[in-house]
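From the methods appendix. Each design record in this collection lists the tokenized structure first, followed by the designed amino acid sequence. Records were kept in a plain field format so they could be parsed without special tools. The example shown here is representative of the layout used throughout.

RECORD:
FOLD TOKENS (246 positions):
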């Protein structure tokens, strides 16, 4: 005789498998569910099914965060499929963002370049995305050209100033980089700009200032929600490594 608990897990596993197929989820979910029915079904229900039922922004953010942790290439695969079906500027930009998030900066730079043609050649989002990819590829001179163009067109934003600071630092223009970093750190949401500025200060031998910024980051992280804390710790660790001379 089948134990009641086992029967419930079997029913849940079957229901999850059906949901995978009907909603066109990644087929690897079937392998997870069938390999470990009770755990696989529970994880699938928490990551895929429950967030889809919640309408609030908190539920959606938690679901997205869980999906990104368990399936980091999901957005890239979906964006790639959309781009293959229709190579629009929007789809290329989406795929470029997904590629950059996975550290595929060569691909991101290429896609942003393909998208920035014709009437979209001066699109600020495309220029910034490509410039950010060029900075990651250690091509600051090419990035600077795009970022200066953005500035001429009145596109000065915290993300563009942060990219500008990184490009100028890469070119050895330290005082200009300092100004751009400071401007971005005081205006950009989250802790990326603060963390990168603290790391810059440490690299310039201004360790005391960098440590003060680390303390401020610790204070902000301690009072933040879990999602912000996870992201914040990443940038805090980046700055701490620079302060330690790593």
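DESIGN:
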């Amino acid at each position: 005789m089948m134990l009641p608990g086992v029967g419930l897990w079997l029913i849940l596993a079957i229901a999850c498998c059906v949901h995978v197929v009907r909603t066109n989820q990644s087929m690897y979910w079937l392998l997870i569910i069938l390999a470990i029915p009770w755990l696989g079904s529970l994880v699938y229900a928490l990551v895929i099914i429950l967030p889809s039922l919640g309408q609030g922004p908190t539920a959606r953010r938690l679901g997205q965060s869980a999906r990104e942790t368990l399936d980091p290439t999901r957005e890239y695969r979906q964006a790639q499929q959309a781009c293959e079906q229709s190579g629009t500027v929007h789809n290329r930009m989406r795929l470029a963002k997904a590629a950059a998030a996975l550290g595929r900066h060569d691909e991101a730079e290429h896609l942003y370049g393909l998208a920035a043609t014709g009437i979209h050649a001066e699109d600020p989002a495309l220029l910034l995305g490509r410039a950010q990819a060029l900075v990651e590829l250690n091509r600051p001179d090419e990035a600077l050209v795009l970022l200066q163009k953005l500035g001429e067109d009145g596109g000065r934003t915290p993300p563009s100033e942060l990219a500008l600071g990184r490009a100028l630092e890469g070119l050895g223009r330290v005082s200009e980089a300092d100004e751009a970093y400071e401007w971005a750190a005081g205006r950009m949401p989250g802790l990326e700009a603060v963390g990168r500025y603290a790391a810059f200060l440490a690299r310039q031998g201004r360790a005391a200032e960098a440590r003060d910024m680390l303390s401020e980051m610790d204070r902000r992280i301690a009072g933040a929600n879990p999602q912000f804390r996870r992201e914040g710790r990443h940038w805090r660790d980046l700055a701490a490594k620079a302060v330690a001379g790593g």
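APPENDIX NOTE: Confidence is low (pLDDT under 50) at residues 1-5.
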